[in-house]
Design a protein that fits this description.
The chain is mainly beta. It has 4 domains: about 1-185, no CATH class; about 185-260, Histone H3 K4-specific methyltransferase SET7/9 N-terminal domain; about 310-430, no CATH class; about 435-645, paralog of FGE (formylglycine-generating enzyme) (Alpha-Beta Complex). About 5% of the residues lie in helices and about 45% in strands. The strands form 5 sheets. The protein has a 36-stranded mixed beta sheet that branches. Strands 46-45-43-47 form a 4-stranded mixed beta sheet. Strands 39-42-48 form a 3-stranded antiparallel beta sheet, with no helix packed on it. A hairpin with a 5-residue loop joins strand 22 and strand 23.
């Protein structure tokens, strides 16, 4: 019985005279096939079986070479090849897929030479030797070396992978792709090599995920679908550059164009899933409610836009740079472009129109006033934190116009004045407000020097009006009492001058106490001794050691104010200790006579005067000039303030 089985593996009888040899036992010599029982090239039928005993191939040899029709069976997918050979060379192939469809052509591989010059129909595999146990990678027709007609490709499991139609080497007509599970993946149509008509994508479950319409390569409309486990679908549609997002209920959520929200809402989130911003758009512009929150979910901005412009009532909230406490503001805008932000609050100045009210953290009003077309207009009121009125002033077109009154925290009037077009026409100071100040009688003097730096020239005639000036530089204790902090490098000395302050810091302090920075002309006039001047080089003396702290006597630090001799007017430390900010923008002197000059109209630097604790004596002269950017801070930069004379 064993012997009979072994014989059956060697060959199969065909009739009484013909037999089929199993290819496993055939031998090849010099390119010719021989049977185990003959020394002549084999002529006859053969077959082969796979490991499971299933027929793998069958055909005929003539004189040791394949000849006639051979049949090959794929190991998966139930496909088969019928290859016609002549003297060992294949001339025609017919592939039959699992659906029974025949594809007739010549087999080629990526090793075939001059493939691009081939004409006719081919079955293609991307291997150096054709493996007829597998489905071909592709089927197509070449004309003049270019694909022309239907091209088909398969997965290894026999599932069709794609079908495309070509014309003269360009895609033309229907193009279809499938997933390996047999589900259609995408389908689109080409014309002259360009997408034209409907393009559809499906997921592996047969659900449409994208539908796009093209017109000769130009995208006309696109819809994308995102499916939830519940079966509900979220849709995205693109039409003429506008992308529309639909909710699962089919309602429009938002539209975008060129990456920007076109219609609907843009929502941004903090990392912890708390909302950061919610912004409404219409036709590509900010339209509707705008809301912004901080990381703690506190609302910090809310209001409405109309065509990118702030309109109507807005709310703002911020942490004050000085007090570190949260403050808030409500106010109305008209055509507000969001520009010209306040450096502390971040609230835009442009477009303010109507009532604005600022609140402290405890809910107490801080100030209240009205704007008209972005300028202060009407009554403005400011309060202390205890609720006491601090200031009341009337504006017209952005300028002080009318009565202006200041009070102390205890309710006592500090000073009162009348303004017209932004200029004082009457000012009355209280005794308390000019306490620790020196009255400087106005007069005319020669400003500048011919023996100093170039920017001290030319010497020119200047007349200044009378004013009050602080006897000393503003101290650390005074600054901390008003501003709630001490920025000084040499801190811990209440009577030392405050330093490490910018021009903006000094000006903010001046506003809070109802004073102002001196002009450069006022500063030099007072440093020279005013109408009592004795012509000293330094303020109050021709010897710097008597009146000021400088490089050789300061011990590399600032000192308490009023420790040296005062000048002719009773002013201390006008030479040395710390530089003192002035109001003016830095600029060249004019040779013309001037009255109450206020420096250049604009510039890059603000003037500071007087020398400092680590300056040489030459820099402490009354005529010496220096400048810094207004936001600059240094351990040698301080200030003192002035008040205009009662008018």
């Amino acid at each position: 019985m064993k012997r009979l089985f072994i014989i059956s593996l060697l060959f199969l009888s065909v009739g009484l005279s013909q037999q089929k040899w199993n290819m496993k036992f055939m031998e090849e010599y010099d390119g010719l096939m021989y049977s185990p029982t003959s020394d002549k090239p084999y002529t006859g039928s053969v077959f082969s079986l796979d490991s499971l005993g299933t027929k793998k191939e069958e055909g005929k040899y003539r004189n040791g070479l394949k000849d006639g029709r051979w049949t090959y069976y794929t190991t998966v997918g139930n496909g088969k090849y019928e290859i016609t050979y002549k003297a060992g060379i294949y001339t025609l192939a017919v592939f039959t897929d699992k659906l029974g469809t025949d594809y007739t052509g010549s087999p080629i591989t990526d090793e075939d030479e001059d493939e691009d010059e081939q004409d006719g129909t081919f079955l293609y595999q991307d291997e150096d030797k054709y493996d007829f146990s597998k489905y071909p990678m592709g089927f197509g027709t070449f004309k003049d070396g270019k694909l022309d007609g239907l091209v088909t490709a398969w997965y290894e499991n026999g599932q069709k992978k794609r079908e495309r139609t070509y014309k003269d080497g360009e895609i033309d007509g229907l193009w279809t792709d499938w997933y390996e599970n047999g589900q259609k993946k995408r389908e689109r149509t080409f014309k002259d090599g360009k997408l034209d008509g409907l393009k559809t994508y499906w997921n592996e479950y047969g659900q449409v995920v994208e539908e796009t319409v093209f017109d000769l390569g130009n995208l006309m409309n696109k819809k994308e679908y995102d499916y939830y486990p519940t079966g509900e679908v979220y849709t995205i549609e693109t039409n003429e550059g506008i992308i529309t997002y639909y909710s699962i209920k089919g309602e429009i959520e938002k539209e975008t164009k060129n990456g920007k929200i076109w219609n609907g809402k843009l929502i941004e989130w903090w990392n912890d899933d708390n909302k950061k911003k919610e912004i409404s758009y219409k036709d590509g512009k900010l339209n509707g409610l705008y809301t912004e929150w901080n990381k703690n979910s506190n609302k910090i901005k809310e209001g409405s836009y109309v065509n990118d412009l702030m309109e109507g009532e807005w709310y703002f909230s911020w942490v004050d740079n000085i007090t570190k406490k949260r403050e808030s503001m409500t106010g109305s805008f008209k055509f507000g472009d969001g520009g010209n932000l306040n450096k502390n609050s971040g609230v835009p100045m442009n477009g303010r129109h109507g009532l604005f009210t600022s609140f402290l953290e405890n809910g107490q009003k801080e100030f209240e006033g009205t704007y008209k077309d972005g300028k202060e207009d009407g009554l403005w009121t400011e309060w202390y934190e205890n609720g006491q009125k601090k200031e009341e002033v009337t504006y017209k077109d952005g300028k002080e116009d009318g009565l202006w009154t200041y009070w102390y925290e205890n309710g006592q009037k500090k000073w009162e004045g009348t303004f017209k077009d932004g200029k004082s026409i009457f000012v009355k100071h209280s005794e308390e407000s000019i306490k620790n100040m020196v009255f400087v009688q106005g007069g005319t003097y020669q400003m500048g020097s011919n023996s100093g730096d170039d920017d001290e020239q030319p010497i020119h005639t200047v007349t200044v009006s009378s004013f009050y000036m602080d006897k000393t530089e503003v101290t650390q204790a005074e600054y901390r009492k008003v501003m709630g902090k001490n920025p000084s490098h040499f801190s811990g000395c209440d009577d030392c001058p405050v330093e490490n302050v910018s021009w903006h810091d000094a000006n903010a302090y001046a506003k809070k106490v109802g004073k102002r920075l001196p002009t450069e002309a006022e500063w030099e006039y007072a440093a020279r001794g005013g109408n009592k001047s004795k012509g000293y080089t330094y303020s109050g003396s021709n010897g710097i050691d008597a009146v000021g702290w400088y490089y050789y006597n300061s011990g590399s630090k600032s000192h308490p104010v009023a420790q040296k001799q005062p000048n002719e007017l009773g002013l201390y430390d006008m030479s040395g200790n710390v530089w003192e900010w002035c109001w003016d923008w830095y600029g060249d002197y004019s040779s013309s006579s001037q009255t109450d000059p206020q420096g250049s109209n604009s510039g890059e630097y603000r003037v500071h005067r007087g020398g400092k604790w680590n300056a040489y004596d030459i820099n402490c002269r009354v005529a010496n000039r220096l400048r810094y950017p207004p936001n600059f801070r240094d351990s040698s930069l301080g200030f003192r303030l002035v008040l205009s004379q009662d008018l």
